[in-house]
Amino acid sequence: MAKGTFLSDDFLRQLTAVGEVDILVGVPTSNNRKTIEHVVSAIQIGLVKYFSRARTVLINPDAGSRDGTSELLRNASLPDFRTALATPPLRTMHTVTTRYHSSLGPGGALRLILAAADLLRAKACAIVSPDLISITPEWVDALIRPIYHEGYDYLAPIYQRQKFDGLLIKNILSPLISAVYGYRIEEPVGGEFGLSGNLACDLLGQDLWHEDFIRYGAPVWMTATALSGNYRLCQSFLGPKIQSSNQVEVGLADTIQRVVGALFRSLEMHEPQWISRNGSQTVPTFGFQSELDLGPLRVNRKKMCDMFRTGVAELFSILGKILSPATLASIQQVAQSDESCCHFTDELWVKTVYEFAIAYHHSVMNRDHLLQALTPIYRGRISSYLLENHGASFQELKARIESLRVRYENLKPYFITGWRAKA
Amino acid sequence: MENILVNSLTTTLQNLSGMIAHFLPRLIAMIAIIVIGGIIAWILKVIVRRFLWFVKFNQICEATGFTQMLAKAALPSPTELLSRLVFWVVWVSFLLFGFNALEIAPLQEEISRFFLFLPQIFVAIVILFVGVLAANFFGRATLLTAVNTNWPSPRLLSSIVRFLIITLAVTMALERIGLGRGVVEIAFSIAFGAVMLGLALAFGLGGRDVARKLLERHFLENEEKEDDQDGGISHL
Questions:
Q1: B145 to A372: CB separation less than 8 angstroms, yes or no
Q2: Which CATH entry fits the domain spanning B119-220: 1.20.140, 1.10.287, 2.60.120, 1.10.10?
């Protein structure tokens, strides 16, 4: 098996010492000293509290942290938080740490976790971000129970979000995935998710770990793969997601390039599975979903709008190769309109996203350049979205997001026609 | 007198016929080489065209912007251009082989000199080709990055990058074929220096405000976080 070639001897030795497990929790780290103790404590309490009879292991691939993250994680032990538990743990909780090269990105860490799940024959796995402040032991239950006890293969998270949080997910990822793959997943790129041992093995066996997009786009690809196959899917409500602000911020253009690029690449790989699917279906959702306004958000909408206008003017020739003349003309019209009237309709936005996916598929230009060209248009859309939904309640916003999803679904034939055009 | 004339005419005719007898096979060989070379060149052209079509060379060039550049210069598609190039290179080579078969000493010397020079021309063409591709790629990358990071004058920056790379490629290509070695080097240094000086002056004198804004944005980034282009929005 190919996995033997990328696992270090030390890692294999540690896994062999663990033996078989029921539950595996993966926490990939990279200089997360500030939050790692809290995250590991929450995971360990969660495992003991909710899965006290299960054999468990915590796998930590570390990208060469220099702040002692791995040491902190290794030294975190149960007696430190015994007061939080009603009963003492019944089984030894194993912790395995290993290093991977940071150039492999989060995809490299996920591959190690999947390999460990395969070797340890884990029944249920959960991936947890190392920089969470809001994680509680209940997250472990929410992420693992549906897979371990209910037999689901893939679990996507649902977070309690601020009204204008996760706009890339709401405007592209979630509705596009729902329309194309036929399953309504709210958070297809959450940092936390669960998967069964079977799905972990299947993902590990895929022959694309060498591809560049996997480095940063692995979570999107994993979600898309789960949606494209015959796997049982579900969602679970986790609560508010608050992360440490200590992390290196990735620019919008890079985020789009990584995440949207991974989705477009996944669409290519899964074409035989989604091309004949019609409509979309909901997936079971676990947990109690609540809504809470987490405070106002200060956004410089004018600047976003200006950047959209500049982008459309400067990148006109590039956009001309990606978009149809009608779509480009409409975008130009939006860009030339008065700021207060800047209105990017759902239909125009959906067509734009579909045409970008089509252009990506047909490789009309360097794919990284193509994805970068989407950034200014996305800013225009967000600017319009913020303006239109400024005073909207949660329910109204939900209805608008739903209407956008329906628009994506209605325009799927348009997408398929373009997708097949040059094939 | 009559005998002398007859003898001289006979000698001349004999010499001429000897020369013709000596030259004619070479001439025939030359024509044969040229004709066969033409056929081989044509076959190679067809093979190359089919191969490039099979590997979708036109689409690859389209993605890099090379096709558009050729179209602007009223040149055929990259596949057609490359297959024609193969045809002409092969046929001209056979043509020169053919002339070589005539065994005319001065001509042979020139031909051998040309053949020695041929690889340099090839390398120069490859350098130019790669240079144009690199210029378009990095020019576009600069334009996109400048637009996405809100830098002033993105198109100007992109044009400068493109110009510098093409200038560098042309300089390298000319140097490869040995054309004005020193002159090219000096010209490039002067051009590059002039561009840099121009930029420095433009930025220092004409663009003081822009420079101030850029520096402010760079150093006060953390203080004005909420006022940057995306505010406090989390896209994921």
A1: yes
A2: 1.10.287
